[in-house]
Write a structure and sequence with these properties.
Aldehyde Dehydrogenase, Chain A, domain 2; seven-stranded mixed beta sheet; 20% strand; 2 domains; 20 strands; 16 helices
Length: 495
């Protein structure tokens, strides 16, 4: 456990449990971190509750709390190079991608500081001599559970909103990628964040289950698999706590025949292979109109085959490893299943040959599976690897029906030069986010989340900021006369 005070020294009867953190590019251990217990989660929550109930953070003037967030943003920016290198070593994402993503982390702190500084309490309309207004208050202690694929950005998205609104937070990063989270907490501490406002617990399933089920946690924000989200929803429902869950996805990318298939394929390659396909909004099923289908498959396969695989720490690398051997084996099994069901492998499909120093890494060649149908496993199930599944369609109604034929509903993409069609299809597709002629673009102001089995609630935007608060409605009678309901000949309206 890492907090603003040192973790207690384990007794001889309960020796510290450690977990090895591995660099997926080499398979080598980077360092070890504590594998916390349920009892240590309880201790972290107690510290966060004490900071909320008696510490200064929730009671600071809003302008002061906003200034704290701005100082945190500046401190993160000043330490960005360390964070870039640490995250690339820990999750294997190419340094060019890591820089592009993590350089934006301070934006979330500045955005939520701005929302806080500009926050207005609503005055509500009503009849009679009454002034009715609302006040927002922080929820209390919030838990944030983050995944391995984008550990720091996803944390910043929720953490900045939770802090801006006056909550204290216990963070549980993925047991595979805790290093940038641990580094961030130290940066926030050095930037002046008060004692106990942010605490980190590290470990696996035991830690996550105790945090989601803890009676003093007012809200859980979780990014992970659908089953983990379902378990968190059940645990929080038992005590009527809130939950925001961004879960799995099987993002459809619809390519119409009015667009240059090479242009669409270049955009599709980014959607499919960025972060080695380990993203909930990865474009993993491409629905392509028959008029451009063959040309699209050819162009996407050529682009996939040309992607530079290698050491993610080197600037020229375009594709790094998967997070673990377990994940790579899962993806390889799904590719094999696709072949058994009749897909045609037009690029990749196996493990690349790499230098000896990378032989222990978990690499996989970017893969294109063509001629799939919607009934195939690879077209239905989330793969979470660098695999693009391509399915032909006939017309717009066919494309929309196929796009919606899935249990997930996180993201979707549409490639077309017909702007009316772009709007029309975006409106018909069931997904929390839709990109037209682009993919995976985000801003702090844009709500992020899905529908169906892709989750509930939203991260980022005003919606996330507001959901870290509860609303109190205050009704003030402004009339000069007294209220005497039973003594009045003509009582007022009873609501």
């Amino acid at each position: 456990m890492l907090s603003h005070t040192p973790a207690p020294t384990p007794s001889a009867a309960a020796p510290r449990r450690d977990r090895a953190i591995v660099n997926p590019a080499t398979g080598q251990v980077i360092r070890t971190v504590a594998d916390n217990t349920a009892a240590e989660v309880d201790e972290a929550v107690r510290a966060a509750r004490a900071a909320f109930e008696s510490g200064p953070w929730p009671r600071l003037p809003r302008s002061e709390r906003a200034r704290h967030l701005l100082r945190c943003a500046d401190a993160i920016e000043a330490n960005s190079e360390v964070l870039f290198q640490t995250e690339t070593r820990n999750n294997g994402r190419p340094i060019s991608e890591t820089r592009a993503q993590l350089s934006r982390v301070p934006e979330w702190f500045r955005y939520n500081a701005g929302l806080l500084a500009a926050q207005r309490d609503a005055v509500l309309p009503g009849d009679g001599p009454y002034l009715t207004y609302q006040r927002r208050s922080p929820l209390g202690v919030c838990g944030i559970i983050t995944p391995f694929n984008h550990p720091l950005l996803i944390l910043a998205r929720s953490l900045s909103a939770a802090l801006a609104t006056g909550n204290t937070v216990v963070v549980k990063p993925s047991e595979l990628t805790p290093l940038t989270t641990l580094a961030l907490v130290g940066i926030l501490r050095d930037a002046g964040l008060p004692e106990g406002v942010v605490t980190v617990v590290t470990g696996g399933r035991e830690v996550g289950e105790r945090l989601t089920g803890h009676p003093d946690i007012a809200k859980i924000t979780l990014t992970g698999g659908t089953e983990a989200g379902r378990a968190a929803a059940v645990a929080t429902a038992a005590r009527f706590a809130r939950v925001t869950a961004e879960l799995g996805g099987k993002t459809p990318i619809v390519v119409f025949d009015d667009i240059d298939p090479r242009v669409a394929a270049e955009g599709a390659a980014f959607a499919a292979f960025v972060a080695a396909g380990q993203s909930c909004v990865a474009g993993s099923r491409f629905l392509v109109q028959r008029g451009v289908y063959d040309a699209f498959v050819e162009a996407l396969s050529a682009r996939a085959s040309a992607i530079r695989i290698g050491d993610p720490a080197r600037p020229g690398t375009q594709l790094g490893p998967l997070i673990s051997e377990v994940q790579r084996e899962k993806v390889l099994r799904l590719i094999a299943t696709g072949v058994e069901e009749g897909v045609r492998v037009t690029a990749g499909g196996g493990v690349p040959e790499l230098p000896a120093e990378l032989a222990g890494g978990y690499y996989l060649r970017p893969t294109v599976l063509a001629d799939a149908t919607m009934s195939m496993t690879v077209a239905k199930e989330e793969i979470f690897g660098p695999v693009a599944v391509v399915v032909p369609f006939d017309d717009e109604d066919d494309a929309v029906a196929m796009a919606n034929d899935n249990r997930f509903g996180l993201g979707a993409g549409v490639w077309t030069r017909d702007i009316a069609r772009g709007h029309r299809v975006a409106d018909r597709v069931v997904a929390g986010m839709v990109w037209v002629n682009d993919h995976h673009r985000l801003e702090p102001s844009l709500p992020w989340g899905g529908v169906k089995e892709s989750g509930t609630g939203r991260d980022a935007g005003q919606e996330s900021f507001d959901d870290f608060t509860w609303v109190k409605t205050v009704v003030v009678r402004t009339a000069a006369d007294d209220v005497d309901w039973y003594g009045s000949a003509e009582p007022g309206r009873l609501n």
